[in-house]
């Protein structure tokens, strides 16, 4: 069958592309190919009791499937051009914000009503941060929570399932150009599409590299973010999280002048495993449902690393560090900050005697054997800097989980329509290297869909 538009990947970018296409032009034939499962079949076997570590399922329920890696995130949609990607560099700052606000309206419409919109504008904490050599980035953020985020995705899927052909558990092997468009090759056969939107997310980075090589699409290397996930009693950060919820704070280290930033803050949340290309890293979730809240808050501290000549494989560098952590700890390693400062590994006994109850079952160990000294020094500096605005962050019992790695796809050469050098072939979302967040990825999907519809109308 030949479709008007074939979408590869059912993450935020792919979902909002499909939504926009069939809402504004219902007669379009649209297909979505996804390597993972539909939402209700996305079940990670790790229960913390019988199954404590990743068993390497055929398709990772956390990373792949309808909703992408964001399906089980804490559902934070940051409306800003200051972080989350460089979409504004392609489509303009005003347009980028407009599209992110439109996505927010849809999220509210499909189940997010009643959730809170936070903002850093005019907050007293901006001055407090500046007084302590920290920078608070400005943004508005809609926090759906992992539970409400799931409901929103369920409702959007119900809206789309009878209007779009979804092919789950159908990974695309390759993309070929044809006379009239593109041929999508899977194990089940070939499908034709007059236009093709690729939205494979970060987990599709290696596949994306192959497609770009096959189709001779230029790319350039991107950065990789390395660090740890910090877990503290929620009361330590509550003055900030109650007002801002998600605070993006940047610190420039004195020793190396590297930028260390907070990322993905989860008040009263949990720390979780994440599987990227078979490598176990760490992440965090939080919930709107009061019954699911914990006594802890967690957030990431990350240092960005860029590479040029002669080494360009930023993701390979990050993967090697994550694999070392997996080798030493059998998965994620956890360490008390006090033990790290004293140069000793943590033990189950020391953690149990502390006043922070871990929300993830991880292997006590020594992160200094895993993370490069420069990165670890920066993280330690940042913890002491945060301690000045939230006393208690640098307590001995603060837990550090490692490693947290944010892989960024190489940047695909795109024009201002997010179209490759091949007419009708678009790359959106985090798989493009342009976006790094739910809001930017979703907005990129809407933007390309609107462009396709406009192009059809002009013919």
Question: How is this structure best described in words?
Answer:
The protein is of the alpha+beta class and 459 residues long. Helices cover 32% and strands 25% of the residues. The protein contains 12 helices and 22 strands. The strands form 5 sheets. The protein has an 8-stranded mixed sheet. Strands 1, 2, 7, 8, 9, 10 and 22 form a 7-stranded mixed sheet that branches. A hairpin with a 4-residue loop joins β8 (172-177) and β9. It is globular, with a radius of gyration of 22 Å. 52% of the residues are buried.
Q: State the helicity in percent bands.
A: 25-40%
Tell the overall outline. Answer: globular
Q: What fraction of residues sit in β-strands?
A: 25-35%
Give the biggest sheet: 8 strands, mixed
Count all strands and give the number.
22
Terminal Cα span:
23 Å
Sheet/helix structural class = alpha+beta
Q: What would you report as the Rg, rounded to the nearest angstrom?
A: 22 Å
Report strand order across the widest sheet: 5-13-14-17-12-20-18-19
Describe what is shown at a glance.
The chain is of the alpha+beta class and 459 residues long. It has 12 helices and 22 strands.
Keywords for this entry:
12 helices, globular, 32% helix, 459 residues
